[in-house]
Design goal:
The protein is of the alpha/beta class. It is built from eleven helices and six strands.
């Protein structure tokens, strides 16, 4: 016969307090702060967590615009045709791409911002300025930062960016060896890639070479 277990209020309180006061890592503290921010209250209330990956051992940082609906619903960034094309451009497998020791992914907004007339809405103003510098400070191992699309390039490069995305990407060599701007791999940009053949013959080989120099 099993002995009866007597509930001890004092012991239970100590166990509860010990669990509640466990010291969070800096990464956990920052994620909690993002979720508690009033700007993100509607997402947090709906059970939607911020979508980004920032492992302190990551060696390549991808900065993009904001997760799409599919990425948010599946909780997996670049889990769409754009991601397939990006992995092809970099010549990496899905396993390599989703290994957080290889790639950190920081969008300019960690939540799907909604749909507009011309597609997904842009990242919310002020979001990247508030959170990305803090997260980037927790990525000491990053050797290469890939700027995906005009939003990322304008935010990261500031006055160093050219007047247009095309000009910025064309001047990619000016930002090497630690930064490389590319066009967004969205299917909507297939025409851009076709009309700028130097992207495929010059920029993509440089991208593949830089990526594999870091992760191989």
């Amino acid at each position: 016969m099993r002995p009866a277990i007597k509930w001890n209020k004092r012991v239970q309180w100590r166990v509860t307090m010990r669990a509640d006061t466990r010291q969070r890592t800096p990464q956990e503290q920052l994620r909690a702060a993002i979720m508690a921010d009033p700007q993100n209250a509607a997402y947090t209330a709906a059970g939607i967590a911020p979508l980004y990956v920032a492992h302190p051992e990551a060696r390549i940082l991808l900065i993009s615009q904001a997760p799409g609906r599919q990425a948010q619903d599946t909780r997996l960034f670049f889990n769409d045709p754009s991601g397939d094309r990006l992995r092809t451009w970099m010549d990496v497998t899905r396993d390599q791409f989703y290994d957080p020791h290889n790639f950190a992914v920081l969008p300019l907004d960690f939540y799907f911002p909604g749909k507009g007339q011309g597609g997904d809405l842009p990242p919310r103003k002020g979001f990247a300025d508030k959170w990305l510098p803090q997260l980037m400070a927790q990525l000491p191992a990053v050797q290469l930062t890939v700027l995906i699309g005009s939003y990322a390039q304008q935010w990261y490069l500031g006055q160093r960016a050219q007047r247009t995305l095309t000009a910025t990407v064309a001047h990619y060599a000016d930002y090497l060896p630690d930064v490389l701007p590319i066009v967004h791999p969205s299917p909507r940009n297939q025409a851009w890639v076709k009309h700028h053949p130097w992207f495929s013959t010059q920029v993509l080989p440089e991208l593949r070479n830089r990526v594999h120099m870091v992760i191989d």
